[in-house]
TrEMBL record, chain A:
Name of the protein in question: Ferritin
GO biological process: intracellular iron ion homeostasis; iron ion transport
Residues that hold Fe cation according to the record: E145, Q183
Pfam families: Ferritin (PF00210)
Entry function: Stores iron in a soluble, non-toxic, readily available form. Important for iron homeostasis. Iron is taken up in the ferrous form and deposited as ferric hydroxides after oxidation.
Lineage of source species: Eukaryota, Metazoa, Ecdysozoa, Arthropoda, Hexapoda
Signal peptide: 1-16
Species of origin: Brassicogethes aeneus (Rape pollen beetle)
Sample GO molecular function, one term: ferric iron binding
Family: Belongs to the ferritin family.
From TrEMBL, chain B:
Protein task: Stores iron in a soluble, non-toxic, readily available form. Important for iron homeostasis. Iron is taken up in the ferrous form and deposited as ferric hydroxides after oxidation.
Binding site for Fe cation: E52, E87, H90, E137, Q177
Cell membrane among keywords: no
Domain Ferritin-like diiron: 35-195
Organism phylogeny: Eukaryota, Metazoa, Ecdysozoa, Arthropoda, Hexapoda
Organism expressing this protein natively: Brassicogethes aeneus
EC number: 1.16.3.1
The protein's assembly and partners: Oligomer of 12 light (L) chains and 12 heavy (H) chains; L and H chains are disulfide-linked. The functional molecule forms a roughly spherical shell with a diameter of 12 nm and contains a central cavity into which the insoluble ferric iron core is deposited.
Annotated Gene Ontology cellular component terms: extracellular region; Golgi apparatus
Location in the cell: Golgi apparatus; Secreted
Pfam families xref list: Ferritin
GO MF annotation: an example: ferroxidase activity
Protein name per Swiss-Prot or TrEMBL: Ferritin
Enzyme superclass (EC): oxidoreductase
One GO BP: iron ion transport
Length: 220, 214
């Protein structure tokens, strides 16, 4: 038992000085260059290995969503739909998903991780339709935002577990700061839009309601 | 009795009306003579949107690679992330142009492939990545020229020479392509010369130089 304890202490000390030991060996003129390249002098610590694949998927989901929002905004910009407010709303979401994807890639590499892009070439599945009525598109957007928010919660949950290979307060704090609060704001704003427009469309003629609601969205 | 029946009918109508939201609207009746783009040209333009996004994803992968802790080339990473967003902006410009000409009123749900596969994700040196970038730009330039050719002479019954689009692609897109290509070529030239005798130091210094936006 005592031997085991000593061994554990020794291991902990060794892992804390991995890089230094490797560099010492690499600088030693008698050691062979091929087997003394340092491999542990990286930015990795904490639980990045345990959370990395969830973060990579989160990047890819943001890229996909940014393309979906681009299609939705394109639809509202055609001359038949001509809804500048809806165009602006969805274009804003498309831009922010894209920029978030880039920021997340930078974050993964900041923590010593790597980005992995999707390896299968899949088209938007054939039943997906981005040419929707106004209220439908708001509903769709609300669902998208909630899915992304729950995914952020899951990553936070991974990094907040009290097990060494997962516990990483830096990651959970990053997720809180950059994602969850903004997501709550977006979700609340969208649910408000859906509530308003649902009431407005509950009448005999929706055309004026939609026109005015679109103007309202333009000014946001 | 009659009034009760009438009242019931009326009430049912009200209930029906309030259950059904008026989400759909009547399709507007707009003359279409102004929509004059030839369909082979529109098809090429739609394809070009995808090409620009593909290039954007390739640049994104380059940015991701040079951000890695053990690669540590923040200047290169910054440049490639910027290029990725620029390529995305080009795609959006093409979309806006088509919308301005009355196109993209239907069948847009499949215009963009969601998961664009990135062919390459690692580069041995900065020079290698810059060379790939230059080749990528040359491919995009060639594809824009193809679009121009088709839009100048669509070879269909309309025989419609799209002067305005051809001018836009030439003056705006090709202009940017040729300037951008020269810039990358000069970077390759400078870095490649440094790499000859001072590989590691050359790339280190060059990276710091471009991270300052020079």
């Amino acid at each position: 038992m005592r031997a085991f304890l000593i061994f554990t202490v020794f291991l902990a000390a060794a892992s804390a000085e991995h890089c230094y030991k490797e560099i010492e060996k690499a600088c030693d003129p008698t050691s062979n260059k091929a087997d003394s390249t340092p491999i542990n002098c990286n930015a990795k610590y904490g639980a990045i290995d345990g959370v990395q694949s969830a973060l990579q998927k989160y990047v890819n989901d943001h890229i996909e969503r940014s393309f979906e929002y681009l299609l939705m905004s394109t639809h509202y910009a055609n001359y038949e739909k001509s809804r500048e407010g809806f165009e602006k709303l969805f274009r804003g979401f498309s831009d922010s998903k894209w920029n978030t994807a880039i920021d997340l890639i930078k974050y993964i590499t900041k923590r010593g991780g790597q980005m992995r892009f999707p390896e299968i070439d899949s088209e938007i599945s054939s039943n997906e339709d981005y040419e929707m009525y106004e209220l439908q598109s708001l509903a769709k957007s609300l669902d998208i935002e909630k899915t992304l928010a729950v995914e952020a919660h899951n990553i936070h949950g991974l990094a907040a577990r009290r097990r060494n290979e997962f516990h990483d307060p830096e990651i959970s704090s990053f997720i809180e700061e950059k994602f969850v609060h903004k997501q709550a704001d977006d979700i609340r704003a969208l649910s408000g839009h859906v509530a308003d427009l649902t009431k407005l469309l509950d009448g005999r003629d929706s055309s004026l309601s939609l026109y005015l609601f679109d103007e309202y969205l333009q000014k946001l | 009795m009659k009034s009760v029946v009438l009242a019931t009918v009326f009430l049912t109508c009200v209930v029906f009306a309030s259950a059904q939201l008026q989400c759909a609207q009547k399709k507007p009746n707009i003359p279409t003579d102004w929509i004059d783009m030839a369909s082979p040209c529109v098809k090429k333009m739609r394809g070009q949107i995808q090409e620009e996004l593909k290039a954007s994803m390739q640049y994104l992968a380059m940015g991701a690679y040079f951000s890695r802790d053990t690669v540590n080339r923040p200047g290169f990473a910054k440049m490639f992330f910027q290029s990725a967003s620029e390529e995305r902006d080009h795609a959006i410009k093409l979309i806006s142009y088509l919308l301005m000409r009355g196109e993209l009123t239907r069948d847009i749900s499949h215009m963009i492939k969601k998961n664009l596969v990135v062919p390459k994700t690692e580069w041995a040196t900065g020079v290698e990545a810059l060379k790939d970038a230059l080749n990528l730009e040359a491919t995009v330039t060639k594809k824009i020229r193809d679009v121009i050719k088709t839009c100048e002479d669509p070879k269909d019954s309309s025989n419609f020479n799209d002067y305005h689009l051809v001018d836009y692609l030439t003056g705006d897109f090709l202009e940017e392509q040729y300037h951008g290509q020269k810039e990358i070529a000069s970077k390759i030239s400078n870095l490649d010369k440094l790499m000859d005798k001072h590989g590691a130091l050359g790339e280190f210094l060059f990276d710091k130089k471009i991270s300052g936006g020079e």
